[in-house]
Amino acid sequence: MDLEAQHVETLSSTHNKLQVKDFIWSENEWPTVAHDDFDSGDDIPIISLSNRSRNNDECYEKACEDMVTTCERWGFVRVVDHGVAAETVENMKRRCSEMFDLPMEMKMKGARSTCMPLGYSANYMNAMDGLGMVILDMLAHGLGLPHDFFTKNFNKEKESTMIRVNRYPPCPLPERCLGLGSHSDPHALTILLQDNVGGLQVQKGEGVWVGVRPIPNSFIINIGDTLEAWSNGRLKSVVHRAVVNRERKRLSIAYFMSPASDTVIDCPLELVRDGYRKYKPFTWSDFRSQLLLQRRVVGKTALLRYLLP
Ligand SMILES: O=C(O)CCC(=O)C(=O)O
Ligand SMILES: [Fe+2]
Asked: Per the database record, which ranges form the Fe2OG dioxygenase domain (predicted)?
């Protein structure tokens, strides 16, 4: 039986338990932390962007510093007071849910292989782009680089910046299944919006997973592989996954930012200590074309081919 032909969503809505076994993951991937377990005592820091304008006052300096130290330690940060209108966010969530509520045959007309137009999401993308540029500026500044060190490479067309909308249906066997397997994001920066269900988990150490508690009016920012290489490994691209639950479907919207295709991802001299360079330079287009050859990114493997001995 071709599993690709069976949609998890259809399976979930018909509660055909006989087929659920076909979606069970290998045992080493079974989640031991539930979707609503956020009580590890350690949580991803929250940073307010109320001082996000670049006027070099003390609050801005402190926010940039905090952004860098959090991304060095966690690879993830949550931002509040980000300036993105609540209406823009609500509208995007509603439209995405409406799309997922369409009949399966209709959704399959836009299956992954075809070019999806940006259409209605353009407003949301503009807002995400503005926020992403603010954060990239802050990271550059916090690392002691010129403000525009990263952002000058992100052209207006944003040719390979993309949005992925995930909707995870309820699952009768959440202890044996995953919504999204463990992976790192290959792009430069991800801005993730999640609803209030919970399910995102970040790997903190070997086999240690931390659930990211949903906070209203916040975005989750995470460093992608490209920014890890660009910062000589200072900013961390951290493995994460999405777990599912028995009762509630969950929506998440990931905005992946990428530089222009011909950008050479090479760490600046300011970040080279004692001559140590972690990765050899590559272009984003080379990295992207390699990724497209992989069917699925598992764990954090995509950058390995550029690792220097
Ligand atoms: O659903 C989530 O919270 C995670 C989504 C994600 O990691 C991705 O789309 O790359
Ligand atoms: Fe991801």
From this structure: 159-259
- Token pair 């836009």 is found at 110
| Tokens describing residue 277 | 């360079």
Q: Which of 254, 201, 243 is nearest to 74 (CA)?
A: 201
Query: Which of ligand 1's atoms lies nearest the C-alpha of 222?
Result: 7
- Strand runs (DSSP E) across the chain, as ranges? 46-48, 76-80, 162-168, 180-183, 189-194, 200-205, 208-211, 219-223, 240-242, 250-257, 264-265, 282-283
Type of residue at 130: G
Kindly list the protein residues whose Cβ atom lies closer than 6 A to any atom of ligand 1: 164, 166, 180, 185, 192, 194, 199-200, 240, 242, 252, 254
C-alpha torsion 110→111→114→115, nearest 10: 60
| Residues of the chain predicted below pLDDT 70 | 1-20, 40-41, 56, 110-122, 156-158, 295-297
- Tell me, yes or no, if 234 is annotated catalytic: no
Tokens of 110: 């836009």
Could you read off the pLDDT of 147-180 as tens digits, one per residue? Answer: 999 999 997 666 778 889 999 999 989 999 999 9
Is residue 172 exposed (0-12), middle (13-18) or buried (19+ Cβ within 10 Å)?
middle
Supply 198's token pair: 């919970």
Cβ atoms of 177 and 25 within 8 Å: the answer is yes
pTM: 0.88
- Which 3 state secondary structure label does DSSP give 250? strand
